[in-house]
Amino acid sequence: MATREGPRPGGRSARVQASVHKAVQTLLTTLERTEVTVPLIAAEAGVTPSTIYRRWGDLQELLADVAVERLRPDMVPVDTGSFGSDLMAWAEQYAEEMSSGPGREMIRDVLAAQDGTGAYQCCNFTRQQIEAIAERAEQRGEVFPDVETVMDGVVAPIMYRILFGGAPNAAHVERLVTASLASKPAP
Fold first, then answer.
1. Alpha-carbon distance values, 32 to 27, 86, 115, 138, 158 (Å)
2. 43-47 long-range Cβ contacts below 8 angstroms, 24+ apart
3. Which residues does 128 contact at the CB level (< 8 Å), separation at least 6?
4. CA-to-CA distance for 75 and 25, rounded, in angstroms?
5. Is 27 helix (H, G, I), strand (E, B) or coil?
6. CB 127 within 8 A of CB 154
7. Residues whose CB is less than 8 angstroms from the CB of residue 15 and which lie 6 or more positions away in sequence, other chains included
8. d(CA 10, CA 60)
């Protein structure tokens, strides 16, 4: 199995990665997932299939890499004025995005990758969002649960339902957030 080389800042490597990622996204909007192949992606991106295999190893690793980039938050959580409403707004949006058809596909792609680094990155993206909400709350002098309490009490149950059941509804998300807010902050 090919080892995935880390992206280098700028240059040809960055251009290739951007081109291949864009090709994957374009093809996934026009073809069924099962129809997307490395040769099709390579042709769309203007690279050779060997470039893709050398960099990503196989199609699943490439799909996971694209999904991780798409799951990277592109903005800080909304500031509503209080920790409770910030967390509620974030959790509702998170549940909605992750339980959507594209969200579920990206989760499957990330989890299907063999090296597991994509899942770790996605967990860190989520943790960073919760940390941003917590830091804002601290600046306002609000008492809030620690980040791990929110990860375990809000994020984990949402993700579990998405993976193994139906999408969590707004009332369920509200119950999770309310229970986390009632938790004692870490000493």
1. 8, 37, 25, 46, 27
2. 45/16, 45/19, 45/20, 46/19, 47/16, 47/19, 47/20
3. 73
4. 21
5. helix
6. no
7. none
8. 24
- Cβ-contact 144, 134 below 8 angstroms: yes
Q: How far is it, in rounded angstroms, from Cα 80 to Cα 57?
A: 44
**Among the listed residues 85, 79, 35, 77, the one whose alpha carbon sits nearest the alpha carbon of residue 59:** 35
Residue with tokens 């990860």: 151
**pLDDT by residue (tens digit) across 44-54?**
999 999 999 99
Q: What would the pLDDT profile of 75-104 be if each residue is shown by its tens digit?
A: 899 999 999 999 999 999 999 999 998 899
Domains and CATH numbers, the chain: 11-57 (1.10.10.60), 73-181 (1.10.357.10)
- 52, two tokens: 């893709």
Per-residue burial over 101-119, b = 16 or more CB atoms within 10 Å of its CB, e = otherwise: eebeebbebbeebeeeebb
Q: If DSSP codes are grouped into helix, strand and coil, which group holds residue 187?
A: coil
Q: What is the pTM of this model?
A: 0.81
> Whole-angstrom Cα distance, residue 124 to residue 72?
10
